[in-house]
Specification:
The chain has 309 residues and is mainly alpha-helical. A hairpin with a 5-residue loop joins strand 1 and strand 2. Helix 1 runs antiparallel to helix 2, helix 1 runs parallel beside helix 6 and helix 9 runs antiparallel to helix 10. The longest helix has 28 residues. The protein is globular and about 65 Å long. The two termini are 15 Å apart. 37% of the residues are buried.
Length: 309
């Protein structure tokens, strides 16, 4: 596949969108990868990191190994994700604190449209597809209702395992990696390690993430190659079930005190806008949800236009 500089710039923009989604505990970068049409290429490229790549590097040199890896694609994408983490993370964190209903409404519209988009890729529905859809919807929904664990455990095996599990969630459309870290009780230790530049913990977390990524991407690639319709049905279910997590109107059930001594919501449940304590900002919320929905429709149109080009 020959690509121009403009194509790699577009891939970087998709990486920026993936990074922005992964910063929010509830939205998956995998969903963004899927709706922007790079999901299977991403899985395939990550799966190329194996022993045969080292053989190619040894026998045929760096250039051939880079080509086998699909290096330009991965580099463009991960540069975008990195730029997003460094620049948008603060903006999104600020929006989550100051305008949570509006931000969640935008993401709700985005994810709602992506359900339709992913479901449309399923070429043939049958009983197994429907059962998979129902099962994964229930699993994802239950995950969103679980109370988070508060753990100060920063033992190396725990951090390694947390990295491996979180990265698997990050590449699964519908389930957010940062939300899985919150559930495991690893969000705080990892965040503290990043803030305090605790290199050993960061390195062990990264090693766990790399291990999880390399193994899980192979499983997903195999599922896409052999059971594409079933896999898509399961992924659609995951995204439907995750909607509960990003529903804009919440009632706080319990609070916890964060590292700055501030009381922050700990466990929440979704409620109707009419039951919301405060201004539900309904008109703006509907408008932003519609914009989020429209963004996906636009991406789909562009993807179709590119295919026909």
């Amino acid at each position: 596949m020959s690509r121009k500089i403009k194509d790699y710039f577009l891939i970087s923009l998709k990486g920026i969108a993936m990074g922005a989604a992964d910063v929010v505990p509830g939205v998956s970068g995998g969903t963004i990868a899927f709706i922007s049409g790079i999901y299977e290429e991403l899985l395939s490229s990550i799966s190329n990191i194996n022993l045969s790549l080292l053989k190619t590097l040894k026998n045929e040199g760096f250039k051939e190994a880079w080509k086998q890896l699909n290096g330009n694609f991965l580099l463009s994408l991960f540069l975008g994700i990195l730029v997003s983490f460094l620049s948008l993370a603060k903006v999104i964190s600020w929006l989550l604190e100051t305008h949570p209903i509006l931000l969640w409404s935008f993401f709700f519209g985005l994810v709602l449209a992506s359900i339709i988009y992913v479901a449309k890729q399923i070429e043939k529905w049958n009983v197994v597809s429907v059962l998979l859809l129902i099962a994964t919807t229930i699993i994802a929904y239950v995950i969103t209702t679980l109370p988070p664990l508060v753990s100060e455990d920063s033992s190396m095996p725990f951090i390694f395992l947390a990295g491996a599990i979180a990265i698997c969630a990050m590449i699964l459309p519908g389930i957010s990696g940062s939300f899985i870290l919150v559930l495991l009780g690893a969000y705080k230790p990892v965040l503290n390690a990043l803030t305090n530049k605790d290199i050993p913990i960061i390195v062990v977390f990264m090693l766990g993430a790399i291990t999880g990524l390399l193994s899980f991407s192979r499983v997903l690639k195999w599922l896409f190659a052999n059971f594409k319709n079933f896999t898509l049905a399961a992924l659609t279910g995951f995204i439907i079930g995750s909607l509960n997590k990003i529903w804009p109107w919440k009632k706080v059930l319990t609070y916890r005190t964060n590292s700055h001594g501030e009381k922050v919501p700990f466990n929440e449940e979704s409620i109707l806008p009419s039951s919301f304590d405060g201004d539900p900002q309904l008109m703006y919320a509907i408008l932003l949800a519609a914009i989020g929905f429209g963004v996906i429709l636009l991406l789909e149109r562009l993807a179709v236009a590119n295919k026909n080009h």
